[in-house]
Protein 1
Amino acid sequence: MSKTYIIIPGRTSQQGVGINEGKFEETYQSEISVLQVSEEDMAELELEAGDWVRVTSEHGQIEIRVKAAKKGELPAGLLFIAYGDYSSRLMGADTHGSGMPTSKGFDVTMEKIAAPVE
Amino acid sequence: MATVTTDASQQEPELKVVEDATCTFCGCVCDDIDLTVKGHEITKAKRACVLGTAWFLNHSVDDRPSCLIKGQPASVEEGIERASQILTKSRYPLMYGLSDTTSEAQRVAVSIADWVGANLDTTTSVCHGPSGMAFQGVGEVTCSLGEVRNRGDMIIFWGANPAESHPRHFTRYSLMPKGMFVPNGRKDRTCVVIDVRKTKSANTADIFIQLKPRSDFEALWALRALAAGVELEAAQVLADTGVELAVWQDLMDRMKASRFGVFFFGMGLTMTRGKHANTEALLELTRDMNRHTRFVCKPNRGHGNVTGADNVVAWRTGYPFGVNLARGYPRFNPGEYTASDVLARQEADAAIIIASDPMANFSEPARQHLKSIPYIAFDPKETPTTRHAEVAFTVATYGINVPGTVYRMDDIPISLRPAFECHHPADLEILQRIEKRVQELIALEAPAENDNSSLRPARDLANGVAAE
């Protein structure tokens, strides 16, 4: 059974710069399509930067590249991804009467996979 | 505005400097930017942050057509006619967005929503909508950013990362400025960052408190207890928050000893389980602290005029977001009338999306439904939302091409100083023309005995039912 992690989608300055350059341009697309993982979790799953993982939430699944988070930024068990199409695909639609889907701090599983065939 | 003409030949575009221009990328709305403008291009944005620089330098005139219908170039007139037909024929239209346009355009947009009996929502619902609910439940002890600059000596960021989302927040408003009652600037202020991850903002803090994920509510109530002098069980607090009770007690002692404390909070509170309950806890803690010293609380707002959207929708309907106008009077109910819900439940049968990109950041069920219905989109740039729109307007950029008013995150209205003109129409112009055409279509569809265009709701008129 895959281990459970907590994922935090959030804003980054590179993502903000990318929005201004254009959402179909390289800066934005590369920023939203990489998952940041703590050093401990990278080691546990034997991951290196650029490896691929499958991330599954209660509501969706994505396949995405990983990179190590900056030292000390993420504790083990916590994942970070910049807001965008990938993070939205993991998010549920239920807003629990608030208008706001639970967009941060939800459970996912993560497993290492082979790189998709281009 | 100072204009300097170059000595170059006549073919060279005019070079000018626009002083004190306003950046509308984020809620800081910095209005001290000096722009160097060459023709239809900004070449330099003095004093702008990394986000502001990207904003100004990447908004030259887009060479796409001003209007696309089903992906094909069309005239603006054709787009206005098609948009008006979509809105008046819809049984449950959704209007959404509004946070990156002027308040003048927002005002007209609300009128259109009223005419067609739309469900009206803004991007607030998926950023600080839960904060809006909490403000209604608890109240808001607040102030302007100018007061923070001049008085704040205890600055606490909770679930917010301004180093990445509002890069000039620290230098312009909250930490670095030398103020009237904090003459030594940063040296006179204590900065605390409370977050589940050690963000870039944490590097700026004197104290960083790393919370256990999803424990904001528990931590805030622990602080409320400490503010009231209630004794807490150390092991329980550690288990609930992931932080030692002694750390919370030390923070509370510092908060009580401060002269003017400020909480800035972000979506770490509003997007995490608990949502408005988390924000309510923070607002209640702020209120509690005023028994000991002066304390205020402010949301760090994201988009350049999302605060304006709240203000305009509130002064036009009585509610800040999530408003349904189908019955001819406004009804407010987050969860029922908010865009994410209306789309995910497949209720809306048409939409008008102004200055936002739900196709990039809504849940998959909401995005799939939006894709399946006819909708109109306004944006200066091509986005996932404009790509799937039945009618897509390429509009002039507010603040760069378009004058008007925006509200800073502390509800201060600020005027825009555009840098250069653009051949694309402004949101305001298109919305005014859509409103006019919508009124004509509603009058045409109404039976003669009810043919009074001043009556509302529009839907009743269109259906031949006299408004009461």
Note: Residues 15 and 345 of chain B are 52 Å apart (CA to CA).
Protein 2
Amino acid sequence: MLLWNHYPLIWTLKKAHAMPIHIAQRLIDSACQVILGKEHAVRLALSCLLARGHLLIEDLPGVGKTTLAHLLARLLGLQFQRIQFTSDLLPADILGVSVFDQRDGQFRFHPGPIFAQLVLADEINRATPKAQSALLEAMEERQISAEGQTWPLPSPFFVIATQNPSEQIGTFPLPESQLDRFLMCISLGYPSPEAERALLAGDDRRDLLARLPAELQPGELDTLLAAVRAIHVAPRLLDYLQALLTHSRESADFSSGLSPRAGLALLAASRAWALLAGRDHVLPEDVQAVLPAVAGHRLRTGSSGALSAEQLSRRLLEAVPLP
Amino acid sequence: MRAARSPRRILERWLFRVGDPEPSPVQLGQRRIFVLPTSFGLALGASLLVMLLASINYNLSLGFALTFLIAGTAWVSIHHAFRTLIHLGVRAGRSPAVFLGEAAVFSVILDNPADRHRRGLQLWPTGSPSPEETFDLSPDTTQVIKITVATHSRGWLQLPRLTLESRYPLGLIRAWSLFQPELRCLVYPALEQHSPSLPFGDGPRPGDRGRQGGTDDFAGLRHHQPADSPRHIAWKAVARGAPWQTKEFEGHSARVIWLDWNTLPPSMDVETRLSRLARWVVEAERAGVDYGLRLPGSSHPPGQGEPHRHACLKMLALHGSPGHD
Amino acid sequence: MVRPDMTKPSLRPDQTGWLIAAAGLSLAPHASHLPLAISALCLLLLLWRGLLNHRGAPLPSRSLLLLIVAVMASLVLLEFRHFFGKDPGIALLAGLLSLKLLETRSPRDGRAVLLLSFFMQLGQFLYQQHMGIAALALMGTLAAVGAMLALQGRPEPVGQRIRVAGTLVLQGLPLMVVLFVLFPRVPGPLWGLPADAFNRSTGLSDTMTPGDIAHLSESGAIAFRAAFQGASPPPPAERYWRGPVLSRFDGRSWHQGPTTRLSKPAYTPQGPAHSYILTLEPHNQRWLLALDFPASAPERIHTDNFQLLAREPVRERVRLALVSYPQTPVGLQERTVTLSEALTLPPTGNPRTRALGERLRTQVTRPEDIPDHLITFFRQSRLTYTLSPQALGEDDVDSFLFDTRQGFCEHFAGAFVFALRAAGVPARVVTGYQGGELNPVDGTLVVRQSDAHAWTEVWLEGRGWVRIDPTAAAAPRRLEDGLAAALGGEGRIPLLARGDLVWLKALRNQFDALNNRWNQWVLGYNQGRQQEMMAWLGLHQAGWQELAALMSGALGLVMAVLAGWILRNRHKIDPIDRSWLTFCRRLSALGFPRQSWEGPIEYTRRVSTLRADLADPVLAIGTGYALLRYGQNPADHALLHRFHQSVKRFRPR
């Protein structure tokens, strides 16, 4: 899709930003060694995390969702936890429980698996809404409260949730309000024939992953996150962004428009995408690149009939002209 | 559904170049804008004529000047009125579905691409009384105008032809344009007022468990058994010194109800049936149960959620009308 | 399509304010002629309405308004005795307009007020049309347009509203000018005018009683202007502008005798000629006050006593192109009827003057020497020239010549003629204007009412009628330097006719010149002027058809400009975007149009893959635009320059 690695770096790079950009490039190169032929998805996933957002991966089993989550944790040097969501999962199974310590006659909080920097919530739509909302509230507030006390979650804190769209029976699709808490919703899709061939012929991904060294030194992630915030956004770009939001709210193509939160998400993701592309400013192309992932799960088709997320965002994108 | 081709309709069609609903965006070009004097404009015209005759009669040079100055200003106001409307863009916005009897609300989007204000605009369905208030468009903005239309039958309701008018600046000239953007509103059947409660058929009724439609998973406590998971022990109760108990949780049993046309009394007419089914759809959605819909010749599999509700109501709304969608 | 008003919206305070302003401005100038009581009542009503508006108080009840209508009507009746005609009509209209404001509740009422205001503005032109009134009318129009805007739009600051109204009026101005200049003018009234349509204007009358001209001299109003073409005007002593010739004396007043109307002058013009344009203020009489002695003027009437008359009383300002020959001998062969009338005296009265005449007749052998002797007598009598002579006795002439010895020109002329007739020399009084003042600003000679004068004509065998000005005997400076010089420091002469205030005089000259132009070109713009204008444009003998065609053409032109202004839909576009759009247009011409939503990088990348040969410049321009538009340093001048240059040089094929 929209890749332009050849965008001349010399024009844009400033000394102060050279560091983050090199780190970002290193990250992408490493990731592409493990996940073959999925550079776009990897970039999106990375942008999502660099924009401090949570990621929802919607895809069939076996296309590498879990591998991608592992890889990201590995690359960013984050402490990783995986929670397999099932129908009998209880909120306490995620957040942790207070256990009565008989020795000192007091309750002691046993932190749940959510106390990690990167949490993979696998097949989130299998759990009951109560369990789902426990996770989602923790995602939003970045802390949990139990027994009248609050415990902050580690920082940074990312959640990568996966769900299987093809299964209908016995699942609880995330309600719209919950979907909005994920900055992006992406899908991986089947690999291309070449990638598949390489996959079949090459080493086991898990081994590869295990061998992969943590890319980021301590502190480098913070540098990256700060760099994303420093990416320049021109007034003209804000105009464009606003036009997109306004159109989504007014047009008959969509039954509900993008929320202000979605607007912020779009801006943050565009910044991260621009950083990964090696630029210190956001272009309309950056917005367009992240738009399907950011807006797709938030837009609802209007009276015009059922459209996929990709089609919806395409329609939004093409309706708003650029000068 | 084609309107009767009355002479008036044909005249309008020829005069105002209006036809079938147009796809968005509609651009208001020169040929779509019409200007005629208002009654005040006509009165001023008559007054100016009298003033001119008086000026000729008494040979009042300044009388000529005054008459011509007012006439010139009035003439310029024609151009201003024209300029208020020209190059405006009209787009269809959204029109959320409503139940029959509620007013349909159409959003019409007006684009002002020019760097000047457009003042004193009014937009209303052609033929109905014009609204009292006017609105202005700021330079380089778009504005959403809501058009409210009463609903009289279920099914698709096309946005009626609209009149956009301005009498700005002097109220002497009325400039207007007629257009009909392609925009439809789905009108669900009316909700039946006093309908019997939901037809919970074969499955267990939610009422059996004393709680109506709970999606909650905590169902209650029972005596502790050694095999129970320690996670499910009601620790708080234990701490208070109560006997050991285990929290019991529901699995989400698949409660499904079918809202079926054929189960309704045969004496009911079509619209009443649809009204009742519509009411049931709304209630089933509110109760949080899975529901399916069966109509003669079509059906919708069980489910819930907003899209599902919409699909069911749409099926009801369009029942019997050829060419769904 | 008229829709019934569902509810009548009430007026906002700002709307009412504008209406009061518009009505007030159209009423204000009427105060100069309306009876004081009615002016005061109108002012009171306006103030009341303003107060109610300010306080947001309810309007008075209908019965109270009816009462005021009755008061108003009785006031008018009291002043004018009837309701018909111009003056009572205007007075009633003024009252109604003020009252209408007090029952103005809806925009509809407001619009009626505005139409009434327009009529009131027109009405004031019946009384006065000077520049100040025009300015006031313009302000009134502005206020009325402001009121229309207020009735139609939202509340706005006053300054803003005036600006919008001013723009509208300014845009209407070209149309006004075209219509004013080219609308075919028709002369004369279309229907009968009310009896009081024209005010009694100041000016000479056809009788002369002692004190008349002195009274007239107190007015500084302009009687007429003369613009001499080519050469300078004749010297002051030759500037005698002939008005009524008075040959009958009834013992107290001088009257016109019977005259014969001729289509040609009764003399053959001789000597040096002066051609000039006379612009005569309306005086509601027929004499045209030509400089002695006018050559044949078509369309005018000559009389046997050398007056030039119009066919109709002069009710509007007229412009006459005239040629005069001051040294023409006139009346060489005079009819005996005229001569005998020029000798007639009333049977009784003024015995001392009669005796003086008898003495002259007997003492002087040659009748043509008698006037000189009489002049000598006048001089020796030490007569005083004054605006305010002492009251005269029973016999005016005797009293003036032998008792009071103070008088104004009519005394001098009357006494002179009386004495000559008594001496058997035919003589008559001529009234008119003498002198005039040259305005250095535009070179026209301005003659005022204060220049009104009376002199005499004496008929001498072989020389015909000879002008003799007895006033000159007493006050020679009257001829050379005007009234003020002749009278010395007398305070009753008009301020502007006084000579000592130099700066005031300069100011007056400026103003007069401006006023003259105003009169000539605005107020005096009539059919004749229109024809002149057409001739100047090369359209001789333009009928109304040609005028109408020309007017339509000019109107079309103005409207085309307006239409162009409407359709102009240009956006202010910055140079970077303009270059970028140029670039996109050029690529589009090659068959690679940019999608409306396509960003610069993606577009140029797409094009560069399709046209590898253009890749370098295209990518450079694309990245340049992206950097300039979205980058951190948009003001990078080197980059900006490079970008513009690349686009300029980019002409792909």
Note: DSSP finds 14 helices and eleven strands in chain A.
